[in-house]
């Protein structure tokens, strides 16, 4: 009975951020990730400007930008397993240094565009084993589940804040320092990230073995109903991301100036930061597990307001509300990471991130197709919201059943 009471207290305690940041390994991973994201945002803007300056072709600009997303499918499914086959700190350092070298090559003047596309592709490809090793190492760094969940809140807040800063100031900074210097800064952030990880993260032997099978993570996910529901809940973002791909036509349909496109793009990540902060500070881990389903429904329901083609201010509030409730994804990811054994954690989390990225890409693409077919960007967003509510309700019911099943929610230190 005493152990049960200790478990209950553990699930209701909300650690302070200061306790999380005091963890040396997490602090290193967190700082390294923040540096990499800042550099990546700068590089995306720089590459877009570079390609358009040289070609004046929207197609080439789109192709190079797509190269930052497409490798997620191949790298996530195939290379994430490396995070279980090799020592994770070693893999992190070498992958990050390889990315630094590839970005450094982009600085060479007159780089042919096909070569530039290939470099961008391989940089993005290497992010798959990097992210898998980073996520698995972050789980290993904490013995306390509540502290681990809190650390993922801080990561989510930092990631979206960096993206907001990139949207707000990336173009200005690239204009100020020039494209070559922007790419050089990105390469330098990778090198600095590798140094930080070397100094702060403890070396551990490989967690998995060849006997686990190359696609062990995928097989475990497919065979476990608990993980299948969690993955389904994560894939709902494929519908709530639709407004991101339609920001420009939404602004045009509202007769708003071009500057409104940036506001529409920033509203969701800003809401996400606010939601993550609120949930992290005021909801216990147990409460957040209960709220995941309802929040998934709310995140889609907020988009229904676009059915009446709202004014810009209302549209921004709706997108912010969708983003704020969409912060449930942090709890989903942390639960998945804590629900699987350490020897397949890299593989499963690599599959998780791949599923997120591919679903988001498909959602944006299909949103564009539907908007073209029906002739209304706001109507497409509302349709995505309606489909999202239906899907999220079904997933929420399935999660409620899974959550009350004895032993289903395996967010426990014994899998770390």
Structural class: mainly alpha
CATH topology assignment of the largest domain: Growth Hormone, Chain: A
CATH architectural label of the largest domain: Up-down Bundle
Count of the domains: 2
How many β-strands, per DSSP?
Answer: 0
Instruction: Give the amount of beta strand, in percent.
Output: under 5%
Q: Would you mind describing this structure in some detail?
A:
- With 416 residues, the protein is mostly helical.
- 79% of the residues lie in helices and 0% in strands.
- Helix 12 (225-235) packs antiparallel against helix 21 (377-404) and helix 19 (328-339) runs antiparallel to helix 20 (345-374).
- The protein is globular and about 60 Å long.
Strand-helix topology:
Layout: H1 2-12, H2 17-21, H3 24-55, H4 58-66, H5 71-78, H6 82-85, H7 88-106, H8 113-140, H9 145-177, H10 179-200, H11 216-223, H12 225-235, H13 237-240, H14 242-245, H15 247-253, H16 259-282, H17 285-301, H18 312-325, H19 328-339, H20 345-374, H21 377-404
Helix pairs in contact: 3-4, 3-8, 3-9, 3-10, 5-8, 5-20, 7-8, 7-10, 8-20, 9-10, 9-16, 9-19, 11-12, 11-20, 12-19, 12-21, 15-16, 16-18, 17-18, 17-19, 17-21, 19-20, 20-21
Task: Give a quick summary of the entry.
The chain is mainly alpha-helical and 416 residues long. 79% of the residues lie in helices and 0% in strands. The chain contains 21 helices and no strands.
